[in-house]
User: What shape does this take?
Amino acid sequence: AFLSELQVVWCSTDCISREGKDGSGESMSVWVAAQAADGMVIQCEESPDVEETVVVSVVREEKGDADGGYGESVVRVVGWVHIVNDGVERARTEWPLFNRMVRSIGELEEGTSGLSLRERVPCVDKMGMLRESVTVHALNKRTWMKVEGGGRVKASDQLPTSRELDRAAAAAYTLPAVSQDKEVSRGASTQSREDTVQHVS
Assistant: This one.
């Protein structure tokens, strides 16, 4: 029911306003690219060079105990951005759609009696397997996070904050293929997907 209400909200939304330090209330087009009973795909034209995609789905977490089975339901929000202009090598994103979606979920939660969501950030390895899940509050207290191979990354990079995109940079992970008969697209050329941030509420 929660996802259905969220879909109704976004199916009737055709634009969002640019916010943040560089924002001036500029309107950006958004559209629902696909939807199903357990999720939806929304896209936003952040600029002539950058397009943002957000996938919202509801899943049941598997229990980690010997009994197996499933635990609580999770509203998962996954977002990525890519440079769509062939002649552009670098661009900038503010993650407007991702941040607006997270806020939209919070607003819907406030209006739903008995519903309580906890926002968490999952950190995954190169294979997409969950390594750690932390609250946004706990993540904001960290400066660095350890990654595979003993390296470190800035904790702030795990959140959808303003950043530069580089077409030559390696993708965080490979996105699953979408069959042509199910794909809904406005025809933009997906040349590069520069960063991926995932939240669990």
